[in-house]
Write a structure and sequence with these properties.
By secondary structure, the chain is mostly helical. It is built from eight helices and no strands.
Length: 190
Amino acid sequence: MKQSHFGRYVLPFAQWYIFMIFTAIAFDYFLHRFQLVFVGRYLGFVGTVLIVISFLYSLRKRRLVKSGSPKKLLAMHEYLAWSGSILLLVHAGIHFNAILPWLAVFMLLVNVASGLVGKFLLKDANEALVAKRKEMADSGLGISETDKILFWDSIAVDMMKKWRVVHMPISLLFVLFALLHIFTIIMYSK
């Protein structure tokens, strides 16, 4: 039985996103319940390190790092960034005393959402294009006819592969707000 678009892409996206937030809330609750709130301060360091390590994928993609399988580095990027995001959400907690950390947390949430949207939309588009190609080949159409018919679909998939044009500025804004937060903490700490 063929699964719906909602079941294959929208639901997993929502589940990962909600699970991330739920995990952060549960972890934060655990720290408060056992009077370990001070641990949350140090989770910011660990979460930041995990996210920085996750950028190995981006460096490999741009050929600044020569070793490592792009597929494995992408999986590592997804899980380390997701885990680091949970730790940063726990680190942030619910404090309404400063706007800069909240801007960083907001950009973190938007960044994770844009990453998940890109992951699931691109996967959907690629799978749909491959399925259409196979269907047309099975019906007896030649490669040139198939390419003509699927020209605009191929263009759309290629454009979707460039979703990073949106994801990268969001990531840069997150990094900017996070660095400003870190700088102000260092500058104003006693």
